[in-house]
Amino acid sequence: MWNWKDEGLVYWLRWEVPVCALIIVVPWVVALYAMNKVKSREALFLNDLWKPQWRNLNPCWLLCYRAFAFICMASILFQQVVLERGAFAFYFYTQWTFALVMVYFAMGTVFSAYGCWVCLNTSLPENGESDEFLKRDVEENCATDEIELQSRFAQEEFQQRAGFWGYLMQIIYQTCAGAVILTDIVFWCVLVPFLSNSHLGLNMLMGSMHSLNAVFLIIDTLLNSLPFPWLRLAYFVQWSCLYVVFQWVLHACGFTWWPYPFLELNTPWAPLWYFALSVVHIPCYGIYALIVKAKNSILPKLFPHAFVRSY
Predict the structure, then answer these.
(1) Using 50, 70 and 90 to split pLDDT, how confident is the model at 205?
(2) Do residues 210 and 188 touch, judged by C-beta distance below 8 A?
(3) Residue at 76 is within a domain
(4) Cβ distance 2 to 254 under 8 Å?
(5) Inter-residue contact 204 to 31 (CB < 8 Å)
(6) Residue 308 lies in a domain
(7) From CA 29, how far away is CA 238, in angstroms rounded?
(8) Is residue 311 part of a domain?
(9) What's this model's pTM, rounded to 2 decimal places?
(10) DSSP 6
């Protein structure tokens, strides 16, 4: 039986605890500073949320893909939470990240549906460049006031800044980008090789959760037009810090079992583990940033007439 006055108090008075706390607090503060910086630098337009980066790809296809990904992930999470582990499933970082990716696809489905509605009501060509469309529309139809009004409406629609929900979707997208890489690398490269199957409970469902999260998001990245600024690494750091704080609070309230061995504080190696976990966020986010960069550098060369180079 866990005892706060004896074992618990001694546990939290170990020298490793304040050191690990400092390792969490410093990235948290730096991330907050970076978040304030990125708000004033990055511009996000509404059409970035739903317009595919392929000229001949109708936005309806992106809508269908996002809806399909959401349904698949919702089904997997339903099996994990309702049919197997219950609320205990959210004791793990994997389920946190998986649910966040699912939220991204839910928001993406809504914005893609809005984009399809915009295309239908502005008579836009299927996924043509907005600037090219507007220029051609003005040159060929400037004779009538009615067409000019339609062109002006389309221009305003394409140049409309994304509001709160649009920026929230981009933040979730980039938080998921780093989190899925971190989740899958830690699971397949650290936990699976060094922990027994009885401890992990490895099965098809768990394997799917630690692979489909990245697969679905990478495919969406290859299709969408969302920008990927480096400074939004801050939101990824905040997400992980929030999870660690959540675990500390639960542990302080009486939960003695850590879901991941490297979160354990009752070892002199704890500060090293926490420091390594803090540092690894940079390469994890960097891996996904390289995927986005490769998309914008390789695909235009392979498909020069079909792929629209990102700005």
Answers:
(1) confident
(2) yes
(3) yes
(4) yes
(5) no
(6) no
(7) 9
(8) no
(9) 0.84
(10) I
